[in-house]
């Protein structure tokens, strides 16, 4: 636990509380994708969690060497999403949108994540709420060099400068 005290902003008691909850849900000490999806589905009973969870799980487990997340990796990811600075949270969000890990986001990648987010939230995806339409509008505003990719710099700048874009791409930040 000492390692987590230095790597996160959680107190020892908070880490212990998370540990007990983690073990209750994951007696093996590892959180696999199936359990991860179950937890999200419980929190969003009216939505479809699987596709969005695939994106979040990949972001929690970037090396993909295992098909499960240990407690330390889980806590470091939770720390960023709960306690991180705006930049840390937006960098984490960028990683989620950068599906293939090439340090840039294509329209296809962003559409995939936005669509999965809408599914999770049970949003209607027709007409003005079409995910692809949102992505086209976002790209027209933040793809500064118009190369049909959003770099990390463009993503961070765009999310910080435009509340509407931030609300779509990183609603909790």
Automatic annotation (TrEMBL):
Superkingdom: Eukaryota
Family annotation (InterPro entries): EF-hand-dom_pair, EF_Hand_1_Ca_BS, EF_hand_dom, Recoverin
CDD domains found in the cross-reference section: EFh
SUPFAM superfamilies: EF-hand
Keywords: Calcium, Metal-binding, Repeat
Matching PANTHER family: CALCIUM BINDING PROTEINS, NEURONAL CALCIUM SENSOR 2
Name of protein: EF-hand domain-containing protein
């Amino acid at each position: 636990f000492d390692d987590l005290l230095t790597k996160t902003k959680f107190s020892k008691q908070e880490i212990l509380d998370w540990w007990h909850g983690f073990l209750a849900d994951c007696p093996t000490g590892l959180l696999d994708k199936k359990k991860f999806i179950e937890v999200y589905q419980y929190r969003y009973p009216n939505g479809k969690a699987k596709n969005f969870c695939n994106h979040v799980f990949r972001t929690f487990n970037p090396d993909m060497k295992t098909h499960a997340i240990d407690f330390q990796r889980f806590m470091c990811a939770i720390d960023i999403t709960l306690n991180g600075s705006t930049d840390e949270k937006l960098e984490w969000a960028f990683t989620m949108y950068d599906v293939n890990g090439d340090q840039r986001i294509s329209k296809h990648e962003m559409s995939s994540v936005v669509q999965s987010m809408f599914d999770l939230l049970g949003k209607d995806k027709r007409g003005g709420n079409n995910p692809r339409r949102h992505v086209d509008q976002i790209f027209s505003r933040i793809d500064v060099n118009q190369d049909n990719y959003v770099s990390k710099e463009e993503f961070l700048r765009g999310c910080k400068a435009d509340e509407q874009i931030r609300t779509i791409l990183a609603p909790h930040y």
